[in-house]
Amino acid sequence: MSDPSSDIRVVVVDDHQIVREGLSSLLGALDGIEVVGAAADGRDAIHVIAETEPDVVVMDIQMPHLDGIEATRHITGRQPDVRVVMLTMNEDDDTVLSAIRAGASGYLLKGSGADEVQTAIRAAAAGGMVFGASLAARVSSYFSGAATRAEEPEPFPDLTDRERDVLRLLAAGRSNDAIAAELYVSNKTVRNAVSGVYAKLHAAGRAEAIIKAREAGYGRD
Fold first, then answer.
1. What is the 3-state composition of the chain as percent helix, strand, coil, each rounded to the nearest 5?
2. What does DSSP assign to residue 105?
3. pTM here?
4. Which residues sit opposite 131 in a β-bridge?
5. What is the pLDDT of residue 164?
6. Looking at the keywords, is Transcription regulation present (predicted)?
7. What percent of the chain has pLDDT over 90?
8. Could you tell me if 52 and 79 are in contact, meaning their C-beta atoms sit under 8 angstroms apart?
C-alpha cells in the first residue's frame, strides 16, 4: 500500500504504443500520480517493475512474449506490495477469474472513462479492489458462490490470531486502512499480517485470499 502523503507510482503495460503513450500521458497529468515506467509486453514489464518499484501497474492481457496474467502472477509473487489493475478488452469469466487468481487487484475494460481508471488506481494503491461496472456483479456473484460451496468451514491452523482477524476483515471486503482502524493497529502491522496470510494460504494476492477465506466460511456475516 502506498504512502498517502506521496504520489502513487504507476507503470503502464500495453503492447500498443498509442495506448501505452496515451495512457501514460493522461495519468501523468493527474495530481497525486507519477508514471515511472512503461513496457510493451509482460516480459519487459517484469524488468521495468523490478527496477522502478511502482505502487500500481496498469496491465493489458494479450501481449507478445508473456501475457498480462502470467506477468501479474510473477510480479505479485516476487513483489507482493505491487498492485496490478488489468485494463483489457477481455471480459469473459475465465479470463477475469484467472487474473484475480494471479493476484490482480482490479479489472477494467478498455473503454472505461478516465475517472474510472483513476479511481481504480487510487483504490488499488490504498489496498482495495476495483472491478468495472459491467464486471462487478459477476465477480460479486462468484465470491458469493464461493462462500456457499464449502460444506463445512475449514480453519487455517497456521494463521496467528492477528492474521486470522485480518483475514476475516479481508473476506468482509475491508481495505487495509479500514482493517488498521478496526483493529487499532498500524498500517504496517496490517501489511505484515496480510503478507503472512498470503504466504500461509498460498494465495497470489488479495482476491485469491478472499476466495479461499470465503470458501472456508469467512466473511459471511
1. 55, 15, 35
2. S
3. 0.68
4. 107
5. 87
6. yes
7. 52
8. no
Q: What is the pLDDT of residues 38-89, one digit of tens each?
A: 999 999 999 999 999 999 999 999 998 899 999 999 999 889 899 999 999 9
Quick one: how far is CA 5 from the chain centroid? 21
As a whole number of angstroms, the distance between CA 155 and CA 92 comes to 32
Which residues of the chain are in CATH 3.40.50.2300 domains?
8-133
According to the model, what pLDDT value does residue 153 have?
Answer: 47
Catalogue the long-range contacts made by 29-34 (C-beta closer than 8 Å, 24 or more residues apart): 30/118, 32/7, 32/8, 32/122, 33/7, 33/8, 33/118, 33/121, 34/7, 34/8, 34/9, 34/10
Cell of 91: 471480459
Q: Helix, strand, or coil here: 149?
A: helix
DSSP per position, 177-205: HHHHHHHT--HHHHHHHHHHHHHHHT-SS
Number of other residues whose CB lies within 10 A of the CB of residue 221: 6
What pLDDT does residue 98 have?
86
Is 112 exposed, middle or buried, given 0-12, 13-18 or 19+ CB atoms closer than 10 A?
Answer: middle
R_g of the chain, CA atoms, integer Å? 17
- What whole-number distance in Å separates Cα of residue 150 and Cα of residue 69? 27
User: What stretch(es) of the chain map to CATH 1.10.10.10?
Assistant: 152-215
User: Any idea which fold 152-215 has?
Assistant: Arc Repressor Mutant, subunit A (1.10.10)
The CATH superfamily assigned to 8-133 is: Response regulator (3.40.50.2300)
